[in-house]
Each structure stands twice: as C-alpha cells, then as structure tokens.
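S.,

As promised, the flavin mononucleotide run. Input:
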Amino acid sequence: MPIPVDQFKHVMRHWASGVTVVTMQTDARKHGLTVSSFLSVSLEPPLVLISIGEELTSEALLKESAAFVVNFLRDDQSELSDRFAGRLGAVDRLEGVPTQPSTSGAPILQDCLAWLECRVVQTQAAGDHVLYVGEVMAAGVNRPAKPLLYWNADYRKLE
Ligand SMILES: Cc1cc2nc3c(=O)[nH]c(=O)nc-3n(C[C@H](O)[C@H](O)[C@H](O)COP(=O)(O)O)c2cc1C
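Predicted complex:
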C-alpha cells in the first residue's frame, strides 16, 4: 500500500525547490501557471520536465500549444508566483505583466531571472498529473539575481 497523502505532503514540505512560471499560447489565449515541479533531465539533447495537474486549465492549453516557456522567478517576485497560482482571484494573470513573445508565442516574462523556451517532445500521464518533457529551443538569463525558493509551504530567500 502507498503511504497516505497527508504523510506524503508532510514529508515533501521538507524538499526545497525554485519557483517558475510556465507560460503557453494557443490560438485562443495566452496563459501561465506557477510551477515548482520542474527539473533538467538531459544535456544532449537539452530536455526539461514539468509536472502539471491533469485537471488544470493549463494542462489542456499545454496539450494544445505543444510548447511552453519556463520563467525562473527572482527572490522579489513572490507576488507574481501567487498571481500565477491563482491566489489573487480571477484576474487575467498576464495583464500588466511586461512580456515578450517567444517563437511559439508563449510569453517570456521580461523581469524574470532566466527563461527556457521548449517544444513538447513527450508526455506521460502520472497519477493525477501529466509530465511534459520539453526540448529547449532557446534560453536566456535576463540579469543576475537570486532565485525565489519554496520550502515548508512558504517562499524563502537565499541568505
Ligand atoms: C509555489 C507553487 C508551486 C506550484 N507548483 C505546481 C506544479 O509544479 N504543478 C502544478 O500543476 N501546479 C503547481 N502549483 C499550482 C498551480 O500554480 C495552480 O493550481 C494554478 O492556479 C493552476 O492554474 P490553472 O488552473 O489556470 O491551470 C503551484 C503553486 C504554487 C504556489
């Protein structure tokens, strides 16, 4: 038997991660969500992975767009993280956020720490999430800064 979900959550709180905003564009709309389940999986070719809740609007949009941008957040961007996590209500999350379009049209957040533009090369259902493997087609560092971290259910900064 697997462990109960509460025990899983309790232990996973002790794992630290960075915070990203993953954006995408379909014919109908641009959108984005906050994602911490992100990792680098291969160097040649350069591949990354994100894990997205199967019920989310963003998951349907990712399926359609087949491309996304991973925007790494700076340590002073926790409000942006809350906004893209839907914690600030039913706002257009991208309204008023300075962006530039990537090749796929998915927005690059101009003030983020760094970004990766990816095309989806593989998907895999995994429990209540879907894993998206992206091949990195373009990338950049906007300006050196410290990353936003998430640990023990809250935002953290490097000392
Ligand atoms: C710090 C943080 C990290 C998150 N990481 C993920 C993640 O890795 N995968 C995911 O599916 N949702 C994650 N979420 C939740 C989504 O950002 C949230 O459910 C969002 O509202 C989904 O947007 P949508 O419903 O418009 O698709 C995270 C939220 C926060 C605050």
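The helical segments are 5-12, 57-65, 78-84. Residues 57-65 form the longest helix (9 residues).

- D.
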